[in-house]
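Usage

Read records sequentially. Each one opens with the input sequence:
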Amino acid sequence: MLVEVLKSKIHRVVINQLELHYVGSITIDMDLVDAANMFPNEKVQIVNLNNGARFETYIIAGARGTGIIGLNGPAARMAAMGDTVIIISYAHMELEAAKRYEPAVIFPGPDNRLPS
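and closes with the structure output:
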């Protein structure tokens, strides 16, 4: 049996870019992507703490060290500049493997950068 479990989470980052006229996705600083064991083009769920919106999109690589968290295309309508979001990815695993799996969860600082 396969179960869906939390794979990775980037906890409480701030939207600092909105690009409505774009194909769609979320741009994330690659330092955060790597630290959270995520990868470009991976499907993610975005949870907006300010308005309660929950939606899915995919990751686009953002420049390292910039703290960029940008919503593009239709996703840009789901948040406002300065909103706090949680970025989540899931994985399907066999039940016994899922019981042992430890997700990667990171807690960036208020500037969307990893603590040094």
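Summary fields computed downstream for this record:
- Residues 36 and 82 are 22 Å apart (CA to CA).
- The chain has a mean pLDDT of 97.
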